[in-house]
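thread: overnight batch results

M.L. [08:02]
morning all. the overnight job finished for the chain we discussed friday. pasting input first so we're all looking at the same thing
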Amino acid sequence: MADQYAGTDLGGQPPAPPALRWAEPPEGPVVVLLDQTRLPAEETEIVCTDVPALVRAVQTLAVRGAPLLGIAGAYGVALAAARGYDVEEAALQLSGARPTAVNLEYGVRRALAAHRALTERGADAKEAARAALDEARRLHQEDADASTAMAARGLALLDELLPGGSHRILTHCNTGALVSGGEGTAFAVALAAHRAGRLQRLWVDETRPLLQGARLTAYEAARSGLPHTLLTDNAAGSLFAAGEVDAVLVGADRITADGSVANKVGTYPLAVLAKYHHVPFVVVAPVTTIDTGTPDGASIEIEQRPGSEVTQLTVLGAVGAVAAPLGGPAASAPPGTRAYNPAFDVTPPELVTAIVTEAGVVSPVTGGGIAELCARSLQVTIS
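M.L. [08:03]
and the structure it wrote out:
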């Protein structure tokens, strides 16, 4: 089960709680999550004492973002092992929680492999559980290190693409510390530009229908002091037409062998706009997000979210995070209206200027470039 403990509101003491942490209170090990459905109004933690609670947190987007889902998956396996649950069954539940995000399955597999290796050598349950936890912690640290490397590589690429040093960056969804073991992916690059005095403006898409940009990216930008402006998703075209965007920086939930990029729905239209307006479109993601077992974008399973997220005026209907002014979900469409609500869309490689990873930059984006990058890395996702 999951217990919720109210934290401080946005006016509380910084820094913000970590997006995910492992804790060992007297009652037994737990995975503690910052409930992202409550942000920015409240900083509230969810304490998961078993894998079903963690799966629910993943599916309701209390914890989200490709790299962090991988970390959550690994800690979920460790949690099942530490509490004496069926580890193999827990791994299956976790891997299927969000099918598009390849990092989730990757993290699960790493912790599960560590647990199996000790079990097959005859270790007792406690030793095998410790091996799974050690692997989860190792993945957590690797992701933090990857974030630092991506920020440096991304900033160097921006300076190369945009000589002059005053960058106006448009981003979509949320790619900061809330999705990472470090400071994020695309957001980490913008943060590095800000610290170097080279960020003029961060344009933040609302990211409908769940407003991860408005609720989460703006929250992180404000905490870090970045100059930022929020816009509705359908205002992006106007912004490009006005010449106010120098580059687009986004994250990824899965990158296929040919360089196709699955990311939060609304990313593909930005890539089309960027191509038309001759603006660089840059994807920032760790190598673990590359799935060499998926050949192209058409092969990606796209998660379909509940239609109520579109037909009701609630940021997250599943948990009632931000309801309509009168309280509770309010209809935004007539009863019986059907909604099309994919969580992700796919951007083909020919629309991507570059893919920035901790292991290097791929540009132009081709299957050969992806393969060469993967050959240099020991962290490739193998399906």
